[in-house]
Amino acid sequence: MAEQPPGRSAGEGEGADGGDGAGAAGHGGAAAPAPAFPAERPRRRSGRTRRGGTGEGAGGDDDGAGADERSGGGSRRGRAEEPADPESRARDICLRLLTGAAKTRKQLADALRKREIPDEVAEEVLTRLEEVGLIDDAAFARAWVESRHSVRGLSRRALAQELRTKGVSGELAEQALAQLDPDDETEAARALVERRLRTTRGLERQTRTRRLVGVLARRGYSEGLAFRVVREALDEEESGAGEWDGAYGDTAYED
C-alpha cells in the first residue's frame, strides 16, 4: 500500500481525541511520521481507560474502547437494553431462569424479590406464566421425585423435604410421592448398600453396619428399614464369602 503523505498525517490527524497514532497504523500508515502534538495527551487518555479496567499499551484507542465496553460503556448499554418497566423486567428474568431448567413458582418469586420487582407485579407475571404452562409445580414435583429417587436413591422423607424447600405445596408433593411404593423404596435402599459394601470390607461387622446404616440415614431412610436392609446384605455376603474371595482375590479389601 502507498505510503501516506507526511503533510496529511500531521494536518489531518485526529488530534482531538489523541488516537491518530493507532488510526494511522490501522489504515496501513505504518511508515507515517509521529504526530505533531505532544505524547503526553495520549498517555492522559490511557490513564482514563485504565480506570475503565484496561492497562496502557500500544493499541491505546482499541484498549480504551474495549474498556468502555467491558465497564462503563458495556454497563450503560446493558442498562439501556434492559426493559425499563418492572413487568417486562420480571418477565425477562423468569424466562431466562426457565431456559436452563424448570423452576417452581416460589423459586421464581424469590428471584424476582432479589431483583426488587414489586410484589404485585411479580404475582401478575407469575400467574400469567402459570396460565401458559411455563410454571407447573405439579410437573416439577413429579420429575424431581423420579430423578432424585432413581439417581440419588433418596427416600420419600428426604424427597418430601426437598420439595418443601423448593416451594412445592404439601398436596402436590404427596401426589408426586405417590408414584413411589414401599417396594421401590426398599429396592433403592438395597442398591445403595450394595454399592457401598465393598468399601467396608475388612472392617468388623458392627463397624460396617454402623457405616452402611449411616449412608441410608443420610438419604432419609428410617432406622428400621436401614438396619433390616444392611443386615440382609451382610448376611448374604457372608454366605457367599467364597464367591466374593474368588471374584476379587487380593483386592477384596481395598477401599
Structure overview:
- With 255 residues, the protein is mostly helical.
- The protein is 68% helix and 0% strand.
- The protein contains 15 helices and no strands.
- It has helices at residues 6-12, 20-26, 40-51, 60-70, 72-81, 86-100, 105-114, 119-131, 137-152, 156-165, 170-177, 182-197, 205-218, 223-239, 241-248.
- Helix 6 crosses helix 8 (119-131).
- The radius of gyration is 33 Å and the shape is elongated.
- The termini are far apart.
DSSP strand tally: 0
Beta-strand percentage? under 5%
Residue windows where pLDDT falls under 50 for at least 5 positions? 1-80, 242-255
Shape descriptor reads elongated
Question: So what's the oligomer here?
Answer: single chain
Rg, Cα atoms, Å? 33 Å
Structural class: mainly alpha
* Helical proportion, percent range: 55-70%
Distance separating the two termini: 71 Å
Order of helices and strands: HHHHHHHHHHHHHHH
Number of helices: 15
In this structure, how is the largest beta sheet organized?
Answer: none
Mean pLDDT across the residues is 74
Protein traits:
single chain; 255 residues; 15 helices; 68% helix; elongated; disordered N terminus
Short description:
With 255 residues, this protein is an all-alpha fold.
